[in-house]
Amino acid sequence: TKRIGILTSGGDCAGLNATIRAVALRARHGYGWTTVGLRSGTLGLLERPVEAVELDPDRLDAALARQGGTFLGSTNRGDPFAFPMPDGSKKDRSGEMVAGLKGLALDGLIGVGGDGSLDILRRLLAPSKVPFIGVPKTIDNDVANTERAIGYSTAVAVATEALDRLHPTGASHERVMVLEVMGRDAGHIAIAAGIAGAADVVLIPEVPWHLKVVVAHIDALRAAGRTSALVVVAEAAGQSDDPAEPDSDAPAHGVGDWLARRLSKATGAEARATVLGHVQRGAMPTAEDRLLAATFGVRAVDLLAEGKADRMVAWWNRQVIDVPLAKVVGRSRTVDKDGALVRTARALGICLGDKA
Ligand code: F6P
């Protein structure tokens, strides 16, 4: 019988607990294996002894599948190969982590993480010879070679609900309501929630936008009799340094507040910004995220049973597949600026800030 480990690494999101539960259930009931939950992500591998708990799937409450966060904890304080020390220096602590991992005598490890965490885990595991399978999770949905990462559906649902709530208050006060959503480098949450929540403007880093185009759009709406407007801006939309965008002095951080102030000044309308932040991460997982967690968790264990390693489970064309981790790490899947969602947004009259 085998003993496999599972850890969650990087930013939390909804659906992690459901993933852990699915792994433990599949390991026990599919193969008679034991699952060990490693606490505190990769950072936990520096503890001595490494904190690990045996997960009895029959005692894991089914309610876990409904809970946000990760009961194993998820901490990552930077790169183990250049670990930030209290004195400000950097130290390679990967050897200590590998030693911690070896001490657990695992026959395989499943790591739930985003692009950065999966890359780190893969490099850490390589010298240990412990087979490693990755499961993609991030509300940003930017992991390469998978159409879906765990947590994204929930983040979109939360952002959509926020728009549903901003609409009546914006309409009551005749205001421009700006919603800043997460997405460190990509606009997936913004474009999806913007369409689902019937926004008037969606600004994403993938489409270089111009303040004057947004202003003209809001002015046109007002001229046509609309008294309020909903604007969604991805947190990364301010980072654009595209030279084709002369009027972007948008800050890398706090783009929502900046935009509300600028729109108010330029249109004369009252504007307010809401920064949604971590509310998008801590929610109860949607049905879709729970399904993804279940199918990914089961498939990850099956891959270890098939003797596979260095692969990631992925969602592609309505199927669960697996892809080499080498094809995932170091690249990120941003919004296709000519893709279906962007075309849909344009077809609905949503302004993306690039053309009137
Ligand atoms: O990658 C997930 C994410 O939530 C991003 O959307 C966001 O930019 C970042 O993490 C926030 O990180 P932290 O929780 O460290 O503030």
TrEMBL record:
Residues 3-304 form the Phosphofructokinase domain. Pfam families: PFK. GO terms for biological process: canonical glycolysis; fructose 1,6-bisphosphate metabolic process; fructose 6-phosphate metabolic process. GO terms for molecular function: 6-phosphofructokinase activity; AMP binding; ATP binding; diphosphate-fructose-6-phosphate 1-phosphotransferase activity; fructose-6-phosphate binding; identical protein binding; metal ion binding; monosaccharide binding. Pathway: Carbohydrate degradation; glycolysis; D-glyceraldehyde 3-phosphate and glycerone phosphate from D-glucose: step 3/4. Mg(2+) binds at D115. The record marks G116 as: Important for substrate specificity. Homodimer or homotetramer. Catalyzes the phosphorylation of D-fructose 6-phosphate to fructose 1,6-bisphosphate by ATP, the first committing step of glycolysis. NCBIfam families: PRK03202.1. Belongs to the phosphofructokinase type A (PFKA) family. Mixed-substrate PFK group III subfamily. This is ATP-dependent 6-phosphofructokinase. It comes from Reyranella soli.
